[in-house]
């Protein structure tokens, strides 16, 4: 193989490896919360999106519900 191909393969492999590591560090712990802790606007939006379905559990990850 020529040097250019080896360099390209090494660069792509390193990029993929660093991407996986970055995603692993990004994970935040999910917290189960009660519906009373969810803001009213979030509850209304969820009810609209559920289209008559029942929301059985609320979770919070970082600032996201």
Care to describe what's here?
The structure is a single chain. The model has no long low-confidence stretch (mean pLDDT about 80). It is built from two helices and two strands. The protein has a two-stranded antiparallel sheet. The chain has about 60 residues and is an alpha+beta fold. Helix content is about 55%, strand content about 10%. The longest helix has 24 residues, at about 5-25.
Q: Describe the main β-sheet briefly.
A: 2 strands, antiparallel
The average pLDDT score comes to: 80
Order of helices and strands: HEHE
Shape: elongated
Spatial gap, N to C terminus: 51 Å
Tell me the β content.
Answer: 5-15%
Q: Segments where pLDDT lies below 50 for 5+ residues?
A: none
Secondary structure: number of strands: 2
Number of helices: 2
Give the proportion of residues in helices: 40-55%
Calculate Rg over CA atoms: 21 Å
* Spatial ordering of strands, largest sheet: 1-2
Q: Which structural class matches the secondary elements? A: alpha+beta
């Amino acid at each position: 193989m020529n040097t250019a191909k080896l360099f390209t393969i090494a660069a792509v492999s390193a990029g993929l490896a660093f991407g996986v590591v970055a995603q692993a560090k990004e994970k935040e712990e999910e917290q189960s919360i009660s519906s009373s802790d969810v803001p009213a606007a979030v509850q209304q939006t969820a009810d609209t999106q559920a289209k008559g379905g029942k929301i059985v559990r609320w979770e919070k990850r970082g600032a996201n519900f």
